[in-house]
Write a structure and sequence with these properties.
This protein has 314 residues and is of the alpha/beta class. The chain is built from 9 helices and 7 strands, in the order αααβαβαβαβαβαββα.
Length: 314
């Protein structure tokens, strides 16, 4: 080289000799290390999370969906009951709270059967988010709409053949068939009782229902279906319960109306009523043995059938 300049090259092995000299790292190498680190961290968190929370339907039970925190539970009830007087068919705040209190005791993991798609539909499903909530309604259109807007909701439509104006004829039929088609312990899927709902999917009749809420179908006109069939069906499902707790909570909304009051007295029984809030009746109905043919005690049955009030207020 010119001017006597000398080129000095440091070999990496000089580091081992204590000289402490390191070659400069390439920017590309640093970028590769940086990206690799975060890719590894992401993969680790992804697989750990996937193992920690089983997917829905995998048999993970309640651990797959943690219990609804009490503040969230209370907030749902609170906001659902704001301005409840705007629509007459809506439940009052006290009525909603009564049903919610029973669902809370289940730990948000009840088997709940609800007759009627109403303003409170999404509330019941949310409060029972760890359990199973099934809705039954008279309108196929309403069922299809709620399924479209709420994917995953379980709802079925039923074509009711009863009418409010036929109340006492239907009660007489049930009395005549008490030991046959209208008995209190049976599989309703095979029942020919005029009050029985027997066209739901087969598996519905095998569920041990913890709570049954009757808030439909319509019952305010003589030509309306009325709630005789849901009340009778609830009485049979509770007494024929295949497993689970020995008692079933049955709520009847608008029990101050004639059809709801008379039918509830006949098939849910006054001895079983535990609370009445506004127009909501709360019954707790226990199982019966297959050879027991009485819905209520003898004194209750005779007193509830002794009078035939007018249907004018329907």
């Amino acid at each position: 080289m010119k001017n006597g300049a000398k080129l000095i090259v440091f070999h990496p092995s000089l580091q081992k000799q204590g000289l402490g000299i390191m070659p400069a790292a390439s920017p590309r190498v640093l970028l590769l290390v940086f990206v690799s680190f975060f890719a590894f961290a992401f993969a680790l968190s992804f697989f750990s999370g996937r193992d920690a929370v089983p997917p829905a339907g995998s048999g993970g039970g309640s651990s797959a969906r943690p219990e609804l925190p009490e503040p969230v539970f209370d907030a749902l009830v609170h906001y659902a009951t704001v301005n409840t007087t705007a629509v007459a068919s809506r439940m009052s705040a006290a009525e909603v709270s009564a049903v919610a209190a029973t669902l809370r005791r289940c730990g948000n993991a009840c088997n709940v059967l609800v007759f009627g798609l109403t303003h409170e539909t999404l509330l019941w499903r949310s409060l029972n988010h760890n359990g199973r909530t099934v809705f039954v309604d008279e309108s196929a259109y309403k069922v299809s709409k709620v399924e479209e807007r709420q994917p995953g909701i379980e709802a079925y439509d039923v074509q009711f053949t009863t009418k409010v104006s036929e109340l006492y004829d239907l009660l007489e039929h049930a009395k005549e068939q008490l030991k046959k088609e209208c008995r209190p312990v049976q599989n309703l899927l095979f029942s020919d009782c005029k009050l029985a709902i027997n066209d739901l999917p087969n598996h519905i009749y095998d569920v041990a229902w913890d709570v049954i809420l009757i808030d439909g179908p319509r019952g305010y006109l003589p030509s309306a279906p009325g709630r005789m069939s849901p009340i009778f069906t609830a009485g049979v499902l509770a007494r024929s319960k295949p497993g689970g707790a020995s008692k079933t909570h049955v709520f009847v909304h608008e029990i101050d109306r004639e059809v709801e009051r008379v039918t509830s007295e006949r098939f849910l029984c006054r001895d079983n009523i535990v609370d009445s809030v506004d127009s909501l009746g709360h019954f707790v109905v226990g199982k019966l043995k297959p050879n027991d043919y009485k819905f209520c005690s003898k004194s209750e049955s005779s007193s509830s059938s002794s009078s035939k009030p007018s249907m004018a207020d329907q």
